[in-house]
Amino acid sequence: MSSSTSSRRSYHHGDLRNVLVEQARALAEEVGPEHLTVRSLAARAGVSHAAAYHHFADKNAILRAVAVEAFGDLRARMRAAADSPDAMTAFIGMAQAYLGFALERRAAFKFMWSPELCMPPGEPDPLETAQRGLAADIDEVLAPHRDRLRPTDERLPMLALWSMVHGYTLIVVDTPAFKGAPPQDLQGIAAALIVTLTNGLLVP
Fold first, then answer.
1. Can you spell out the DSSP letters for 114-177?
2. Hey, is 29 helix, strand or coil?
3. pTM of the entire structure?
4. Which fold is adopted by the domain 60-201?
5. What angle do helix axes 156-174 and 183-201 make, rounded to 10 degrees?
6. CA distance 99 to 78
7. What is the pLDDT of residue 6?
8. Which residues of the chain fall below pLDDT 70?
9. Which value, to the nearest 10 degrees, does the dihedral of the CA atoms of residues 148, 164, 77, 3 take?
10. Distance between CA 72 and CA 21 in Å, rounded?
């Protein structure tokens, strides 16, 4: 069955919005979000662009939906990888899941953090909600180990962990410094960084 036939069938079952998000995700990875248009997306989904506009007002609305879906994927991977009673193992698992997601879904990772995709002030913003959910997940990974955290502002451990993981991930995906580096080497560096940070956060 062709992808166009499959898309049309989904559309007739009332699932066009999800089909468009799925196809937008694929297009963003293939050609980059800057080259994605509502018309090209509709053609790929096998529907008219008018049908696509029924679900999304513009390109930004489509990319926002893909970004929110990507946050759900990232959060699920992080929670699974951090499922350990040992603090160091949990933190390393979370960091490596974060980096692995970015390496696998580079396009989505880049526009997940784009201010241009946020809703105007005062309007409900699903992207903001998704980002705050990610921060809550990181805080939840820290929660079982709070009795071992050095006394400090309660927000700092989460921000320190997120900043190191996110900062390192951005360096890997956005700069030439690690171009062509084997993923296992990149993950090894992530683990070493987390060990260094954790030794500073936790009381021995």
1. -GGGSPPTTS--HHHHHHHHHHHHHHHHHGGGGGGBPSS-TTHHHHHHHHHHHHHHHHHHHSGG
2. helix
3. 0.85
4. Tetracycline Repressor; domain 2 (1.10.357)
5. 160
6. 10
7. 46
8. 1-14
9. 170
10. 13
